[in-house]
């Protein structure tokens, strides 16, 4: 079996963090969106939020997988420690210190990683019989909050960015260009709904019910 180079490993891990963060950001952004807009397509938005959160968790699970021979943060740190002279932007001592700090970060988030691993093994990757029989038990054993998931990504990102920049001699932020373009889609929905309400009230008078937050004031001024 061909073994990836440290450069290839770091690039693969960067990609996992990048994509996982994007899923998390989409879910987080939609959860904060105007509920009125989300109710225009509740199935779509509901599944998008749930799916994005699941895929974000799976990205973390891959980054810290325990499968034999899998490329992970831990195997990267091990390989990096064996290749200190290959770092382009750090002396062997500086590289060793960066690896040590990274290992400390991993240790600090271990409870979060354990919860994600249990969720991955008990539900996300396959349907564990015990989880199907008692879903509440998994929730109790693998409690995970949004801040937990955010911390897992932020600490992992620090490690990957630092080791990549130290090894490759270049720095690259882990952000998709247009990663918040869901806001544009929501704005188009808001604009269409506001225009509909405006036209309706101009012709028929007040329209009862909820409306987008952003256009309420303008419509009130018209009446």
Observed structural traits:
single chain; 223 residues; mainly alpha; 2 domains; 11 helices; 0% strand; elongated; disordered C terminus
Global shape: elongated
The secondary-structure class comes to: mainly alpha
Helix content: over 70%
Encode the helix/strand succession as letters: HHHHHHHHHHH
Annotation, overall tally of beta strands: 0
If helices are DSSP runs of H or I spanning 4 or more residues, what is the number of helices?
11
Descriptive account of the structure:
- The protein is mainly α.
- The protein folds into two domains: 6-171; 180-223, no CATH class.
- It is 71% helix and 0% strand.
- The protein is built from eleven helices and no strands.
- It has helices at residues 6-31, 35-38, 42-63, 73-82, 92-108, 110-124, 129-133, 135-141, 146-168, 182-204, 216-222.
- α1 (6-31) runs antiparallel to α4 and α5 runs antiparallel to α9 (146-168).
- The longest helix is centred in the N-terminal third of the chain and has 26 residues, at 6-31.
- The radius of gyration is 23 Å and the shape is elongated.
């Amino acid at each position: 079996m061909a073994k990836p180079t440290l450069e290839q490993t770091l690039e693969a891990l960067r990609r996992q963090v990048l994509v996982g963060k994007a899923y998390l950001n989409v879910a987080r952004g939609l959860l904060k969106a105007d509920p009125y807009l989300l109710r225009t397509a509740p199935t779509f938005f509901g599944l998008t939020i749930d799916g994005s959160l699941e895929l974000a968790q799976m990205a973390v699970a891959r980054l810290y997988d325990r499968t034999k021979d899998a490329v992970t943060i831990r195997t990267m740190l091990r390989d990096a420690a064996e290749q200190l002279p290959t770092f382009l932007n750090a002396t062997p001592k500086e590289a060793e210190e960066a690896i040590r700090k990274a290992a400390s970060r991993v240790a600090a988030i271990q409870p979060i990683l354990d919860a994600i691993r249990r969720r991955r093994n008990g539900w996300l990757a396959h349907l564990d019989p015990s989880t199907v029989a008692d879903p509440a038990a998994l929730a109790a054993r693998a409690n995970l909050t949004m801040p937990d998931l955010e911390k897992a990504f932020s600490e992992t990102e620090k490690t990957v960015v630092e080791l990549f920049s130290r090894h490759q001699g270049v720095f690259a932020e882990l952000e998709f260009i247009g990663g918040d373009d869901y806001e544009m889609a929501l704005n188009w929905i808001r604009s269409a709904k506001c225009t509909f309400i405006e036209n309706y009230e101009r012709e028929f008078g007040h329209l009862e019910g909820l409306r987008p937050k952003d256009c309420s004031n303008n419509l009130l001024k018209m009446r």
